[in-house]
Amino acid sequence: MSQSYNRGTVEDFGRWREFTAGMWAWIFHKFTGWVLVGYLFTHIAVLSTSVGVDPASAQAGSDLYTSTLSGLESLLIVRFLEVGLLAVAVFHILNGIRLLMVDLGVGLESQDKSFYASLLLTGAIVVASVPTFLGGKLL
Amino acid sequence: MSTQIEQQETETEADEETEPEVESPGDRRRAQRNERQAQEQAQREVEEETLDDEDTITLKVFRYDPEVEGKQEPRFDDFRVPFHKGMTILDALIYARDHYDSSLTFRHSCRQAVCGSDALFVNGRQRLGCKTQISELEDPVRIEPLPHQEVVKDLVVDMEHFYDQMEAVEPYFDADETPDDKLEEQRQTRENREKVKMSTRCIWCGACMSSCNIAAGDNEYLGPAAINKAYRFAMDEREGENRKQERLRIIEQEHGVWRCQTQFSCTEVCPKDIPLTEHIQELKREAVKNNLKFW
Ligand code: HEM
Ligand code: SF4
Ligand code: FES
Q1: Backbone phi, then psi, for B106, in 5-degree steps?
Q2: Where are the domains of chain A?
Q3: Chain B residues near residue A104 by CB distance under 8 angstroms
Q4: If DSSP codes are grouped into helix, strand and coil, which group holds residue A53?
Q5: At residue B57, does pLDDT exceed 80?
Q6: Would you state the pLDDT for residue A129?
Q7: How far is residue B22's CA from residue B135's CA, in Å, rounded to a whole number?
Q8: Domains in chain B, ordered, with CATH?
Q9: Strand, coil or helix: what is A60?
Q10: A26 at the B interface (CB within 8 A)?
Q11: CA closest to A14 among chain B residues
């Protein structure tokens, strides 16, 4: 057989050239799933290192836990990250439900529409959450 | 989807002709044909003269030939092809080959979406050359060989791996029991025929496999077409329970149905509109039902 040419980058880009709804959904689901795992570990690390057992200072509102959390909440970047986390979680849940339907073989013809619906709903919920997350006073 | 240039019907005129001359029907037909060809030639010349930008399309075609020095670096060649109504990608390629560069290489045979030899990567998507209208595409039309297969020359890719995957699912009817009388038909119920109907339409073009991200990253993955083939027989009630179990064993293996991540790209590109993802999902459920027993 004739020697054949490995198209290298053409090959790799070809794979991603034309994205369809299902492929975006897949990428986003992977991404959000791993972000959630990352958050889970950070969450555990932060909380487990900020539990102090000192009833007196807890009474005064100056214990480790309160100061850690209010310290975090006073950072604008943390507020934005929280909005991002909500977006990621909501999309993962909605698309997760979509994937469960796909696995059950329900409504496969509208899999693209249900993906767009997940995106829109995520967007709406995130926008609605902005006042809550960004509204509180930065202590 | 006609690939022919439209021809004037002249038969009715011929019937009305009542010339007394001693002329064989063959002579008459030949004379008419010559006349028609002359007309067409004249028409074509006029068309070609009045050709402007609107009537032509530009093809950007991937070229590569490992056997000719100077063509071993892949490149894109531009061809300007006159457009006519109903023109397909394949028609345009044939025109370019016949008029500009006879070394331009691509596979085709039936020109009517039956043989499956001309799946190409057109404007970033897997399409069947003979089933894709130029008018649906943006100009210039970029034509490349199918991704994720070795390129042999120009638009020709090596299909060997794809065929191997197809063979791996034993793509032939093989019933547990055949009728004693060899001539007896093996009838299928209407419902069962409906169930496998879409899956029988595969023309082995390889578009689905080429579009699949998972298949691109895992060479052992059976791929949508092969799994669809397995579906076609596993769901055929005439084969019997034993054969079905064997078929399920094939599709359940490590690089079988479970690799599918439901991206639906195969379903999007299949020129025969086979609901590939649906069939893969159904086989997944079938496999689970087969293995999970709570009693
Ligand atoms: C109601 C909540 C959730 C639902 C409905 C859900 C649903 C799903 C589903 C259906 C899948 C499988 C995707 C597939 O078929 O390939 C999945 C994957 C995954 N989920 Fe979730 N999930 C939820 C919450 C979470 C949380 C809280 C985390 C992290 C702590 C998480 C992390 C992941 C990861 C890492 C994957 C695998 C992604 C990959 O394919 O690499 N999920 N989820
Ligand atoms: S399933 Fe469709 S895309 Fe895949 S090989 Fe068969 S006809 Fe082509
Ligand atoms: S030439 Fe046969 S499928 Fe296109």
Answers
A1: -155, 155
A2: 20-135
A3: 285
A4: coil
A5: yes
A6: 92
A7: 49
A8: 56-157 (3.10.20.30), 160-180+187-291 (1.10.1060.10)
A9: coil
A10: yes
A11: B147
HSE, side-chain direction, 13 A CA sphere, residue A77 = 0
Please give the single-letter amino acid code of residue B133.
Q
Q: Is the pLDDT of residue B21 over 70?
A: no
pTM above 0.90, yes or no: no
Which positions ≥6 away from B147 have C-beta within 8 Å? A7, A10, A11, A14, A15, B121, B126, B210, B216
pLDDT of res. B7 = 52
Identify residue B261 by its one-letter amino acid code: Q
From the CB of B1, is ligand 3 less than 6 Å away? no
Quote the pLDDT of residue A2: 34
Q: Which residues, judged by CB distance below 6 Å to any ligand atom, belong to the binding site of ligand 1?
A: A 29-30, 33-34, 36-37, 40, 92-93, 96-97, 99-100; B 261
CATH 1.10.150.20 given to domain A20-135: no
